[in-house]
Design goal:
Helix content: 10-25%
Radius of gyration: 30 Å
Structural class: alpha+beta
Strand order of the largest sheet: 1-2-3
Distance between the termini: 75 Å
Strand content: 15-25%
Low-confidence stretches: 36-45, 68-77
Shape: rod-shaped
Order of helices and strands: HHHEEEEEE
Number of helices: 3
Length: about 160
């Protein structure tokens, strides 16, 4: 009994068409999204956002203003060693820093705020801030980040 025409061409065509349909569904599923204007409607400009300095301080680990702090007696120090940067948030236009002054607990300072004895927070950039007083500037930096335990070599 002779075989009719081969059954493989229709099977291969069906496989090809079903594969193309599946790939099309995956492509459009991954690229489906809202129109750009609707997606951007809820985004505010950074310059319009108000910065809550106390919330920044709490987020960076500072103690609340009213909390009792242990008394720390510090030896007289040079101007540069009076200030210790403990946290930074924001950028050039709006930013805040968590700074400890004279070995006291750190407090949050917004950009432009006076720190102590005429020093003012003048610039916030990345992991550094600049404070200034009467034309003199002092740059404070956060300590370098430690490597995660997974990045260190095992002995």
């Amino acid at each position: 009994m002779p075989y009719p025409a081969s059954v493989w061409p229709p099977r291969m065509a069906a496989l090809l068409l079903s594969t193309l349909a599946a790939l099309s569904a995956v492509y459009w599923g991954l690229h489906w999204r809202l129109p750009a204007q609707q997606a951007m409607a809820g985004v505010a400009e950074p310059a319009e956002q108000a910065l809550d300095v106390s919330a920044v301080a709490r987020g960076l680990g500072a103690a609340p203003e009213g909390a009792a702090q242990p008394a720390v007696v510090a030896a007289p120090a040079a101007e540069a060693s009076r200030f210790v940067l403990q946290g930074v948030l924001g950028g050039d236009r709006a930013g805040a820093a968590l700074i400890a002054i004279d070995n006291k607990p750190a407090k949050p300072f917004a950009l432009g705020a006076e720190l102590a004895s005429g020093w003012q927070l003048t610039r916030v950039s990345g992991r550094t801030v600049t404070i200034g007083r009467q034309g003199a500037e002092l740059e404070l930096s956060l300590p370098p980040l430690a490597l995660p335990a997974t990045a260190k070599k095992a002995p």
